[in-house]
Amino acid sequence: MTNLILLGPPGCGKGTQSKILVEKKNFLQISTGELLRNVVNSDSDIGKEISKIMKNGDLVSDEIVVTMILKEISTHPACSFIFDGFPRNIIQAEKLDEAFNQQKLKLDLVIFLDVELNILKNRIEKRIRESNSEQVREDDNVDILLKRINTYKEMTFPLLEYYRKQEKLVCVNGMETIDKISEKIALLI
Ligand code: AP5
Ligand code: MG
């Protein structure tokens, strides 16, 4: 069993590459963004709170997100996981390490999709064009993207050093084509 994290800024291709790994290699994708959007769509009070945070480009509380992740891990034993969009800060990374240690699981690899931040606007605009109007994400517009990039720089970027120290970090050039990137990832796992 192989467990991976896909790390990188908004629009770098975490979701795209996760879906390829699910299809080709039988991984289970755990996307905190998708789990949170499901709660938002449930129209509950907590969903309304989460929606406000996401529309502001901020991080949802560690408590909520970590609880979701622990539930996903425990309800899918014997799966190879891809974490897409988690962890997003050092606290979340430490909680994941703790959970993996307790459950005798191993984090094998952290793949950083390295892209120039100035292309992300084009990527997000492309995603908006490719979605029909009901599918467009509430946080997919250029103003919120800039906020999400700032949150990424401040909170998530330090994880590179965290995983470099654990000797788990591999950088993949995220500026190449989707197919080329997936070929490179396939060689790593
Ligand atoms: P989340 O849903 O995780 O969004 P994100 O990290 O901002 O990333 P995106 O989903 O926008 O981009 P992606 O990297 O998946 O790119 P994609 O493959 O779609 O999080 C949303 C929000 O939820 C956060 O802002 C936060 O509020 C909250 N949240 C989530 N996780 C949290 C956590 N752990 N803690 C707290 N809060 C959390 O690609 C984008 C586009 O580019 C697509 O059109 C695609 O076709 C295209 N594309 C992809 N790769 C390439 C390529 N190589 N070349 C050309 N085009 C490409
Ligand atoms: Mg995504």
Walk me through the structure.
With 189 residues, this protein is α/β, with parallel strands linked by helices. Helices cover 55% and strands 12% of the residues. It has helices at residues 14-25, 32-41, 45-55, 62-75, 90-102, 120-130, 142-156, 159-165, 178-188, and strands spanning 4-7, 28-31, 81-84, 109-114, 169-173. Strands 2-3-1-4-5 form a 5-stranded parallel β-sheet, sandwiched between helices. The N and C termini lie close together (10 Å). The structure holds BIS(adenosine)-5'-pentaphosphate (AP5) and magnesium ion. BIS(adenosine)-5'-pentaphosphate binds next to helix 1, helix 2, helix 3, helix 6 and helix 9.
Secondary structure blueprint with pairings:
Blueprint: E1 4-7, H1 14-25, E2 28-31, H2 32-41, H3 45-55, H4 62-75, E3 81-84, H5 90-102, E4 109-114, H6 120-130, H7 142-156, H8 159-165, E5 169-173, H9 178-188
Bound molecules: BIS(adenosine)-5'-pentaphosphate and magnesium ion.
